[in-house]
Write a structure and sequence with these properties.
Blueprint: H1 11-26, E1 32-36, H2 41-49, E2 53-54, E3 66-70
Antiparallel strand pairs: 1-3, 2-3
């Protein structure tokens, strides 16, 4: 969550990218997910920019949201 004054400056992207990186490389997670409210178009755009894909078959959690799955980046030989 960021202050409105931080919007559009790339801060959310940088933080989300680092968290994603830590999830896969430091923690060794095979996948990361994000639950995003339908009306939160900025977060949906950010998830897509990071390479996440919406899982349309995922069950809706308590607060109805969309589920976006992040898979680990490909490892180059």
């Amino acid at each position: 969550m960021l202050l409105a004054s931080a919007a559009g400056k790339g801060i959310a992207f940088e933080v989300a990218r680092e968290v994603r990186q830590q999830s896969f490389h430091t923690l060794g997670r095979p996948m990361a997910v994000g639950y995003i409210k339908r009306e939160n178009t900025r977060s949906i755009r950010l998830a897509k920019r990071l390479g996440a894909v919406r899982d349309t078959k995922a069950a809706c959690p308590r607060v109805c949201a969309l589920l976006y799955r992040h898979t680990p980046p490909s490892v180059s030989p």
